[in-house]
Each structure stands twice: as structure tokens, then as C-alpha cells.
Amino acid sequence: MRAFVTGGAGFIGSHLVDRLVREGYERIVVYDNFSSGRREFIEHHLGKRYFRLVEADLLDWERVDRELEEEYDVVFHLAAIPDVRIGSIKPEVSKIDIMATYNLLDAMRRRDIEKIVFSSSSTVYGEAPPIPLKEDFGPLLPISMYGAAKLACEGLISSFSHTYDMKAWIFRFANVVGPRCTHGVIYDFIRKLRKNPEELEILGDGRQKKSYLYISDCIDGMIYAFERSKERINLFNLGTEGATEVNEIARMVVEEMGLKNVRFRYTGGDRGWKGDVPRFRFDIGKIRSMGWRPRYDSDEAVRRAIRDLLREI
Ligand code: NAD
Question: Which of 4, 17, 118, 18 is nearest to 71 (CA)?
């Protein structure tokens, strides 16, 4: 198999590349602009016969088109500006991610590449009722620019697939955590506590509660469903059924860092930032019914990721 991986130098993308190598993919091309990706995450592949790195932006339409000239069986599209918070300050990031996805799909159409695997997000559900959400829940009304961009990309992928005989695997990820993670609540808490081990600023009231998924489970679920589900559009929630509260994450980070008497200072309000969905639960029955389930629950994923990141940052 030959794969083109956008965002392959990022957190999830680089783990995916490692997995594709283990799966025996004969060709893997990473396309990344290194806006948040890191060379060190993929450097063990540099110079290998199966591997090629393209340092370029998906907004560069001609370059995307040219790089897709090689034959590929599948495009894994993970490139995006991944921070939900940025959208409340810089709404243009959503435009960038939508344009990037459009360019990629248009180049795929021209090059007759039929399969796309896309990293969407639970944020497409917006502020939905407090029930475990299934893939067919609607209407989808995101409350963040990030969620809006993901939903727009899902729409483009669906319409390109129907119009140009393509097939798509869309995964709505929970919060993915683990080694090489360069953003998110665990990363933030560790960095803040390294700077000031006496006080931890917590955005919101700390009662936000979401599903966390360990990186190995994320990659495993994606590959599992990609290999088995054969509809035109294959849409899956990918997360854990339970959820972990931000206060609990803070307590776990403090404990794992061996700190005592840390003061928690809350910025207040029920959410961390504009566009944050404070409580969220996934129904993962669809992928479970195919015989897959995550190895780690939400609390275990958080605990493991704290230990991983303490070794890294
Ligand atoms: P990441 O920032 O580590 O990876 C994104 C990669 O895309 C980076 O390497 C970055 O340099 C690259 N990139 C961004 N814009 C680009 C562009 N215009 N052209 C080329 N390359 C570009 O983030 P991640 O956490 O690994 O996320 C991967 C994907 O999964 C993203 O699409 C993200 O939105 C999605 N996702 C992540 C999570 C999570 O919890 N980490 C949750 C839901 C969805």
C-alpha cells in the first residue's frame, strides 16, 4: 500500500506513520508545513527507502497537485491547526483548514486517488444534549471556529466522494493524548507547574468533563475501521465511553509530578474559552459493534499521557 499523509510530522500523524511502517506499507509520503509538526517525530524514517518528506503547505495548490502525481492507494488527511482556542482570537484559521482540505480533495480528484481518511473532531457536535452522542445525531451546530471548519471539511469530503467516486473514512476524535502531544490540557498543566510549582491556573471552573483517548487506541481504531468498513462514507466516533474532569486531571498531574500543596486558581465560568464545550460524552457503539474497543479508558489514557509527557517536556 502507498499512503500520502498530510500532517504526518504532527502528534497523531507521526504515530500513524510509525504504524503504517509496521503494517508494511511500501511507500509513505508525509506532507507537512511544520507549523506545529516536528522533524524529531519523523526523523527515524528520514533516508529510508519507503519514506519521503515534503515540507510544504496545503494552501500551495500547485505543490499539492504535483506531489500527488505519484500513485497512492490512500490519503490520510491529518493536517490542521489543531488548537480549538486559537479560533476565538484568529477566526481565519478555520478558513485555512477548509481551503487546505479543498485543495487536497481537488488534487485527489484530478489524480484519481479514491480513498481519504480524515481526522474530524467531537467539536462538530457543538453544545449538544448531555447524552452519549451517536454519529447520526443532528442537527450539527458547532460552537467553535475549529468545529465549524471540521464540519465544513466533512461536508466537502462527502460531496467530493459522491461526485467523483471517492470513498471516505471520517473519524470524530475525542481528546487524543500520549507521547509527542504538543498541546492540550495535560501539556498546559505540566508546563505551568514546571514554571510555578506552587500554583496552577485552571481555565474555567475545572468541572469540564470530556472523553480522552490514548494515542495507540486512536491509531488502532482508525486502522481497524479503515480496513473493515467499506461504505462510501464511513463515519465513526473514536473515543472512550467515559470522561475525565479537568479538576481530576489537575490532581493527577500534581500527584505524578510529586508536588504538594499546589493552589488551584480558577479563571471562572463554566468553560475554558469561547467555543469550549464543557461536557461531552461519546457513544462509540458503532465501532464497538465491529469488534473494536479502546484498550484504555479515559482516566487511564490521561494517567498514561501524563507519565509520557513528564518524560518528554
Ligand atoms: P498536530 O498539530 O500535532 O498535527 C497537525 C499537523 O499538520 C502538524 O504537523 C502541522 O505542521 C501540520 N499542518 C497544519 N496545517 C498545515 C498546512 N496548511 N499544510 C501542511 N501541513 C499542515 O495536531 P494533532 O493533535 O496531531 O492533530 C492531527 C489531526 O487530528 C488534526 O486534523 C486535528 O484537528 C485532529 N484532531 C486532533 C485531536 C487531538 O486531541 N489531538 C482531536 C480531534 C481532532
Answer: 4
